[in-house]
Amino acid sequence: MTEVRFSHVRKSFGSVIALAGLDLDIKSGDFVSLLGPSGSGKTTTLNLLAGLHAADSGDILIGDKRVNDLSPDRRNIAMVFQNYALYPHMTVFENIAFPLRARGRGFAEAEIQKKVKGVAESLGVASLLARYPKELSGGQQQRIALGRAMVREPGVFLLDEPLSNLDARLRIRMRRDIKALHDRIRSTIVYVTHDQAEALTMSTKIAVFDQGELQQYGSPNEIYHRPLNMFVANFVGEREINFIAGQLQAVEGIPTFIAPGLSLPVNAEERWCSLEPRDAVLGIRTEAIFARPTAGSETVGLVEQVELVGPELVAYVKIGESQLSCRAELSSELRSGDRVHLTFDPAHFHFFDPQTTASLAGSTK
Amino acid sequence: MSYKRAILARGLGTFVLNCVIVFFALAPLLWGFSSSIKPTDQILKVPPEIIPSEVTFAHYRTLIENDVFRYMGNSAIVSAATVLLCLGIGTFAGYALSRFAFRGRNFVMVVVVTVMSIPIAALLVPTYTLIANIGLLDTRTGLVLLYTAYELPIVIWIMLGYFNTIPRQLEHAAMIDGYSRFETLRRVILPLTGPAMIASGLFVLTSAWNDFVVAVVMTSGQAVRTLPVAVYFYLGFFGREWGPLLAASMVSMAPIILIFILFQKYFVSGVTGGSVKG
């Protein structure tokens, strides 16, 4: 059981600031995803934790020990790389046994045999032990890389986009396998990904990064349903979130969001809802807007594009100056050019300050 | 049908062309070899016999009587030591240049390339003075040091190029798995550099084994004389006697040809190793 703590950690490469003062607490046994676009600082964070880079300032703690000055081999961590980094001149068995044979570990040969076989069986690769990495499929290589990390029973697992080289189906299966693995071994896992779906499905906590700064740290539920700023709101979610610039103001005593072609009443119990008019950006996800060809609301728009997404349709609807993505029933048989009525779910409204991009709801916390 | 005939014609053309190339490349060798096992009076017979009607090893015996084994031994010792030294230093230097960003790295790389492009003739006089001053004239050690100095840059360059093709993640993985930088190099990286080592080793071996100019300048005694120098002295010693001369040529070529045949598979993959994924 090992916790990880970053405090005021800074790192720059030349004039590029990769990480601008990171504070992050990872509890023992947590599965934390570091989520962000490329260049956001998530991989830098992982490499700092692994000891592959040295921090410019700040403290990195694993357990209770400050590890800034420890080399990677003395940090009690294991890592799975994006390209797996299997040793090409060793068999699968030798690859998995490699960490056990490091100097100072002192495992007896019989013990190594037992541990490697145990790990291989738990990953379903026991039949591949005599093969070489180049003779394996991508998914099998992935499992071997996981096995090599598991066999040492490290305090912290680091995974660097381990699924990004797999095809889509396999990725979804490996997602479940890794989650099951975490449920079984209960180790602390730090998982770097740019795929928000991976982060949402597997993690207990997500840390969203952008431009070298931690944007939000919370459970997948919090990240998805209470984004602290426009970046998080937009980055997390299958589709881009709909952003509509407009004004919050009172209409007949009810707080209402007004934008060209739109007038939406807002839940009045939200604490930040003063009746003073102010500029705001409404963020609303596809699944919180529903399009119907029949009358049902006063908001009317023109369908520009329709996609079939499994059990339902996603329609892109033009309203005023903005195009909104919204759900529609399969049976509605929408076509582009149709006029539709839109209903909005006020429970899923996220309001942001257009200047700071911060959430208006978050400002009261 | 005409399509098939065209393919056939092209195949035949290629075959004939290859035969011509093989003839030009191998005919002198074969002729030299067959002459070296002919009795002296048969060698200049017109028309020459490619397959000698009478075989004799008299010329090779003459060579043995004239200390050829000592000269071969000298060449072998000098070449082997040069190869080991070049690979030893070149591998570490190439690794350092490939993996570490240190002050003066670019300068070192420029120097390496520059040194490669200085012709040996221009270096003969200064290195002679140097070797004479430190008392290594007429020693095998002196030759080894000089050959190493001449060949090291190309070894560094080949190794550097090859290290650059090996993903850094492999080292990172090994270090995280609990190995020090040096252990990582020994157990993970070096086993992967075999092709590059063989390629640069063969390169160094050929130049050291075949070198005449440096050896003839730096040595004078018989005790440390290398094979190419010895062949040259045979020329003065035997005069126009083609038999022993050709036998000497065969003896000096054979080991290199043999080693190339043994390692040719690795040599090719080492030479192309830098260009495609390793």
According to CATH, the fold-level topology of the largest domain in chain A is Rossmann fold
Output mean pLDDT of chain A.
Answer: 89
The total domain count of chain A is 2
Structural class of chain A: alpha+beta
Helix coverage percent of residues of chain A? 10-25%
Briefly note the CATH topology name of the largest domain in chain B.
Answer: MetI-like fold
Rg of chain A, rounded, reads 25 Å
Q: Note the main sheet of chain A.
A: 6 strands, mixed
CATH top-level class of the largest domain in chain A: Alpha Beta
Strand arrangement in the largest pleated sheet of chain A:
6-7-8-3-9-10
- Give the helices and strands of chain A as they follow along the chain: EEEHEEEHHHEHEHEEHHEEEEEEEEEE
The coarse silhouette of chain A is elongated
The total tally of domains of chain B equals: 2
Span of the ends, CA to CA of chain B: 44 Å
Query: If interface size is counted as residues with C-beta under 8 Å from the partner's C-beta, which chains form the largest one?
Result: A-B, 26 and 16 residues
Name the shape of chain B in a single word. Answer: globular
Runs of chain B in which pLDDT lies below 50 for 5 or more consecutive residues are 273-278
How large, in whole angstroms, is the Cα Rg of chain B? 24 Å
Number of helices of chain A: 8
Structural class of chain B: mainly alpha
Approximately what portion of the residues of chain A adopt beta-strand conformation? 25-35%
